[in-house]
Amino acid sequence: MPSSPIPIPSSHQPIHAAVSVSPPGGPLTQDRFRHNLLASPGKVRQPKVLHPIDNEDLRILLVENISQDAVKAFEANGWRVDHHTKALNEDDLVQRIGQYHAIGIRSKTKITERVIKAASKLLVIGCFCIGVNQVDLITAAKAGIPVFNSPFSNSRSVAELVISEIIALARQYFERAFELRQGIWNKQSKNCWEIRGKTLGIIGYGHIGSQLSVLAESFGMRVLFYDVINLMPLGSARQVESMSVLLSQSDFVTIHVPDLPDTRNMISGIQLAQMKKGSYLINNARGSVVDIPALIKAMQSGHIAGAALDVFPHEPGANGAPFDDQLNPWASELRALKNVILTPHIGGSTEEAQRMIGEEVSGALTRYLDFGSTVGAVNFPEVDLRAITAEQPDNIRICHVHVNQPGVLKQVNEVLSPYNVEKQYSDSKGDVAYLMADIADVSPQDITRLRELIIKTSSNILTRLLA
Asked: Does the global pTM surpass 0.70?
């Protein structure tokens, strides 16, 4: 039996949903089609501008110094934006979240079950980053809240950082630079290498891994990759059948996988022992995937010649906070190692990446709040409808999130039976289902009644009507 939905307080008000188009092709094709359609009003029928039945001002909370481009995009829609440069802890979020309809976070702010239960008006969550493990996705879905992220906008920035780390580890030049800043001249070539002709092993051949593959080949490297699914290689890269094969043949190993139960500590003592003596390990993925105490031992023994770590199991919540043994008990031991590059989770921290992430996630949130579209949501059924046109002034849009159980459509369609349902589309994901329907010839007097009847159905989680 599907689990019961989390009760949403009655102050949960309907907000904008709006129009969309659904051409053939993937999400990227659809996004480009929508952009071109709406940017060329003279060539198509004008979409009707939809408004929430309850005209409550939309408020958005952005934390962790999210791109100002996103702030401007939301403000251009007339929405109120509260922007904070730092992360908020759970207590702060619980205290503040009740007044917001949307929230944008990065990797340090945690949206827990407790936060979601306190979010009496929250409609959508935007993760302005790749990862979504900082959000309780299941609880959010059961509360009728889709979560959007940016799965590829910072791929190039991370790939370039990896290339720079490969060269820095091979040449040890960051140590030479540090010595010279201390007034020590230490010119040497021992154990310093060109990367041309070396083998790079990539664990996880997704957006970042595949881009990195192309960059590495341009430097004359041989590329192997391991992934849990069969993928088409780019260039001359070759997929290997197991991670142990990749580890044993690679001079440099770099990791690009999400934080999942199967990936936690996927590189530990056994895997490090399988790596070539004198090889290098790079982790710009998630802090949970490498057993750092085991890595410290492998480096102290000389088996691993160098490492670059941009992510850690526990990270400071703000700039200036200490990275010490109270945060991670092995921190001082790690910092004392030679030929280790330690960076503060800066893989996607470039102006270009943050601008593209801001555009991508703010666009997804806007499409949901204005259009009702959930295309690209990571925890939610992906549903979209084409536009209601300006020639259909008496049409309304219903956005109905409900428990995925038998009989729901029958109940809803009984409510809608007196009207002409011009478009209807529903889909489900786990315990949650989402229905969008456009209804014709609805009088203003009927709108409130329709909403009340649908909300009273036994499976209702969240219903918004837009007219």
From this structure: yes
